[in-house]
Amino acid sequence: MKKIIFVFALICSYGAFIVSQHALGVTGQVSSGATQTQQAATNITYRDGTYTGTSADALYGNVQVSIVVSGGHLTDVQFLDYPKDRSHSVQLSTMAMPILKQEAIQAQTSNVNTVSGASETSKAFRETLQSALDQAKV
Fold first, then answer.
1. Cβ(49)–Cβ(132) under 8 Å?
2. Among 8-12, 32-36, 45-49, whose mean pLDDT is lowest?
3. Each residue's pLDDT tens digit, 47-85
4. What letter does residue 46 receive in the DSSP assignment?
5. Which of 21, 29, 43, 84 has its CA 20 to 30 Å from the CA of residue 96?
6. Measuring CA to CA, which residue among 138, 123, 133 is closest to residue 50?
7. Strands (E), the chain
8. What is the pTM of this model?
9. Which CATH architecture has domain 31-136?
């Protein structure tokens, strides 16, 4: 009986740890240094239009985005390509893409956090996004 209680407590503790780690990754908490960079970036203005970034290697596939700039600000990010050759890659990309998109629009820059578990996709996202933003610079 003691073993069952111990195993149950261990499983619950591990489950709580996993949930807390996932919640931290999903909320996109930003360090104070990144917050200062984001605040400075909100002063950046871009030319209105739609711009497509160059394709960037994410190890298990490529990432490419198209951005929409309206009123001088980044208003939308669309994924044209993302790692999707393996089911695990699709799962990670599907989890990471909305987080990366949200952070980029909020930050108005490619300086976004790496999504836990999708580090290569996050890196490639920053590269292709920066390429598109460079085209939109005033």
1. no
2. 32-36
3. 999 999 999 999 999 999 999 999 999 999 999 999 998
4. B
5. 43
6. 133
7. 49-52, 56-57, 62-70, 73-81
8. 0.70
9. Alpha-Beta Complex (3.90)
Signed CA dihedral, 98, 20, 34, 36: sign only: positive
**125: phi then psi, degrees, rounded to nearest 5:** -60, -45
Three-class SS state of 137: strand
The Cβ of residue 130 has, within 10 Å, a number of other Cβ atoms equal to 16
**How many Å apart are CA 115 and CA 126, to the nearest integer?**
11
Q: What is the DSSP string of 18-42?
A: HHHHHHHHHHT---HHHHHHHHHHT
Give me the residue spans of the domains in the chain. Answer: 31-136
Q: What is the CA radius of gyration of the chain?
A: 18
- CA gap 100, 136 in Å, rounded: 19
Helix axes 32-41, 87-107, angle to 10 degrees: 60
